[in-house]
């Protein structure tokens, strides 16, 4: 009797070049900034029917949603920082802000009919610079949200702010309305760097803001820093981080500076040299060592923190539980789980005019399949190091290895993941590798269509290590 040995086969090919090009396309077209989008935002199509969107939410909220999120986008800033690649605008007139807030209330009213009974677990105020709002405007906005949404069981309310617009009175008001996680955008405390990136805060204003937040008893403070900014040196980054660590915020983020065509840095013809990128990489590594040496630890689906309560639960819920979230405001993204991802218009006048006519201000969207949700879960989880197979099965009622057998075999062969009984564990050495290799989980039809639309996808060509290492988003 002849024993037949079946050899495992897979059709995966080397698409590193293609996935690098897709990553660059995403970086140049995705202004959302809050969550990674799958399918990529540049593939989304026009959605004309607000009724379709509301019906999708009715179907979702017809069942109990334990992890429902609400995101509120306030896109205005005093001035636009040169590194910013997301949807944010310089506020030229207070009347524009008042008109925007009036339109935001009308958007809330449209969704209220569907959402008012469903408990919201997390609320996130992002921007832009939400702290740019006056005490009166903030008080009115919070009040309106509490009246029209069910916040009786909320776990976290997050508020982003700039220290120059957060005095004790304003922070006390935020505490009154339940804010229990404050993100202070700092980026750097070096005056040369602050000037180079068109920011305006001083070290004193940051220190005063931090102490005022402590005095107001806001439970969790997160500080955002950046690595590799123009005029930034390793020494100045070290000094900024040393000052921040001494304050003991509950969480510290260090974001690498990766300019895109949406940033004024690129628009003014500036570029990062290889030396700039090497400094950026050294600052990122130095920062991680210093932060963890100071007693902070990696928090699941977030950065380095003192405890689990410091994490952004809206973002982690969106990944770990594939949770739905509603985005309000111009440029805000929504995820109606298993139905659609969509984004609001970034044209302020269009946003206001559509809502004045009683219409949802939707720019584009993408209808979702179950496979899309699976791919989102796997690729987003890999960003943080591990994919939980038990969680995958609980969410999708199927084994992860049976859905992605070829992808797992291929990435194991290239020594980019470890596959054990409980987890897929990333062996990717940097964010650049993640951005390329995670895309091997993309839908094959999508990859096929990408190959038709992108040039120079010769699979025989290999990327140099530095080409991957410096792809920091």
Which secondary structure elements does this structure contain, and how are they paired or packed?
Elements: H1 16-29, H2 50-61, E1 69-74, E2 76-77, E3 89-90, H3 94-115, E4 122-127, H4 135-148, E5 156-161, H5 168-176, E6 181-187, H6 191-196, H7 203-215, E7 220-227, H8 234-247, E8 251-256, H9 264-267, H10 274-293, E9 297-298, E10 304-305, H11 313-320, E11 325-328, E12 333-336, E13 340-344, H12 348-356, E14 362-367, H13 370-383, E15 386-388, H14 389-396, H15 400-403, H16 405-413, E16 417-419, E17 423-426, H17 431-437, H18 444-453, H19 465-469
Helix pairs in contact: 3-4, 3-12, 8-10
Radius of gyration: 22 Å
- Mind describing the biggest β-sheet? 9 strands, mixed
* Uncertain stretches of 5 or more adjacent residues: 1-10
| Assigned CATH class of the largest domain | Alpha Beta
Q: What is the strand arrangement across the widest sheet? A: 9-10-8-7-6-5-4-1-11
Name the average pLDDT: 91
Overall morphology:
globular
Short recap of the structure:
The protein is α/β, with parallel strands linked by helices. It has helices at 16-29, 50-61, 94-115, 135-148, 168-176, 191-196, 203-215, 234-247, 264-267, 274-293, 313-320, 348-356, 370-383, 389-396, 400-403, 405-413, 431-437, 444-453, 465-469, and strands spanning 69-74, 76-77, 89-90, 122-127, 156-161, 181-187, 220-227, 251-256, 297-298, 304-305, 325-328, 333-336, 340-344, 362-367, 386-388, 417-419, 423-426. The chain has two domains: 8-38 and 369-473, no CATH class; 50-318, tm_1862 like domain (pyruvate-formate lyase- activating enzyme).
């Amino acid at each position: 009797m002849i024993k037949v040995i079946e050899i495992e086969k897979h059709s995966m090919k080397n698409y590193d070049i293609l996935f690098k090009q897709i990553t660059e396309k995403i970086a140049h077209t995705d202004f959302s900034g809050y969550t990674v989008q799958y399918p990529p935002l540049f593939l989304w199509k026009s959605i004309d029917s607000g009724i379709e969107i509301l019906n999708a939410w009715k179907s979702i909220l017809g069942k109990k949603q334990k992890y429902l999120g609400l995101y509120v986008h306030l896109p205005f800033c005093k001035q636009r920082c040169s590194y910013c690649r997301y949807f944010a605008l310089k506020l030229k007139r207070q009347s524009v802000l008042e008109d925007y807030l009036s339109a935001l209330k009308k958007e809330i009213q449209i969704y209220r009919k569907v959402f008012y009974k469903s408990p919201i677990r997390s609320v996130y105020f992002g921007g832009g610079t939400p702290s740019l709002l006056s005490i009166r405007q903030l008080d009115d906005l919070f009040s309106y949200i509490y009246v029209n949404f069910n916040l009786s069981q909320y776990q976290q309310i997050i508020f982003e702010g700039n220290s120059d617009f957060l005095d004790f009175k304003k922070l006390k008001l935020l505490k009154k309305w339940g804010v229990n996680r404050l993100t202070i955008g700092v980026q750097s405390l070096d005056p040369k760097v602050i000037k180079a990136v068109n920011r305006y805060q001083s070290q004193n204003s940051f220190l005063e803001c931090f102490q005022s937040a402590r005095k107001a008893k806001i439970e969790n403070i997160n500080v955002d820093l950046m690595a590799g900014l123009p005029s930034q040196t390793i020494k100045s980054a070290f000094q900024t981080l040393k000052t921040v660590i001494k304050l003991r915020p509950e969480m510290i983020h260090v974001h690498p500076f990766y300019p895109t065509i949406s940033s004024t840095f690129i628009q003014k013809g500036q570029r990062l040299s290889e030396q700039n990128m090497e400094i950026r990489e050294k600052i990122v590594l130095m920062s991680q060592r210093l932060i963890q040496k100071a007693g902070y630890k990696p928090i699941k689906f977030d950065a380095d923190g003192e405890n689990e309560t410091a994490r952004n639960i809206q973002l982690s819920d969106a990944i770990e539980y594939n949770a739905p979230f509603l985005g309000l405001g111009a440029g805000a993204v929504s995820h109606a789980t298993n139905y659609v991802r969509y984004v609001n218009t970034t044209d302020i006048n269009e946003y206001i005019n559509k809502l004045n006519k009683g219409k949802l201000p939707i720019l584009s969207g993408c209808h979702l399949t179950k496979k899309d949700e699976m791919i989102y879960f796997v690729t987003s989880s890999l960003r943080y190091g591990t994919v939980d197979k038990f969680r995958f099965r609980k969410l999708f009622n199927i084994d992860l290895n049976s859905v992605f057998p070829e992808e797992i075999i291929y990435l194991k062969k290239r020594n980019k993941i470890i596959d054990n009984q409980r987890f897929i564990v990333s062996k990717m050495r940097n964010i650049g590798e993640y951005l390329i290799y995670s895309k091997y989980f993309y839908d094959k039809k999508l990859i096929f269509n990408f190959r038709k639309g992108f040039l120079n996808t010769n699979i025989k060509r290999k990327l140099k290590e530095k080409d991957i290492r410096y792809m920091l988003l």
